[in-house]
Write a structure and sequence with these properties.
Length: about 170
Amino acid sequence: MTTSLKAHKTPVHYDSDQNFIIKPFPILGAEIIGIDLSQALNLRDLARIKAAYLDHHLLIFRNQDITPEQQIEFSRLFGILQIHVLHQFQLPGHPEIMIISNIKKNDKPIGLGDAGAYWHSDLSYKEVPSLGSLLYARQLPTEGGDTHFADMHQAWATLPEHLQTA
């Protein structure tokens, strides 16, 4: 699921703050600890999450139990969702969600199996590129299956100036 940079008005509730911690990783990303994404966020919590995303570029929310509707609602808080071009792997009834999986049923893949076989940036070829992607792991292998991320902000910053202007 990818979101564009354009704003989208999804209702945000004004109930009490969720007491959560933002734990930065040494090089890239941060873990958000103690938040329940199945519950509505208030404006203050949403602002903290968005600021953490801008600061750390990658956020991890472990141990979530959310429905497809809740995943879509949370994703919309970051902008308008883009529907992926590989329609055959959309979650039935939820075109905003694309299934990434190496599982087969009746010898047919239930999702895109080679999504992480090469370095890429989701839908970066679009006129308005995605702000990012939201991944929700439903089933993980006991070993392997790693997803790797690269800090392209840092990569750009460390390029020699003559390459930044080429």
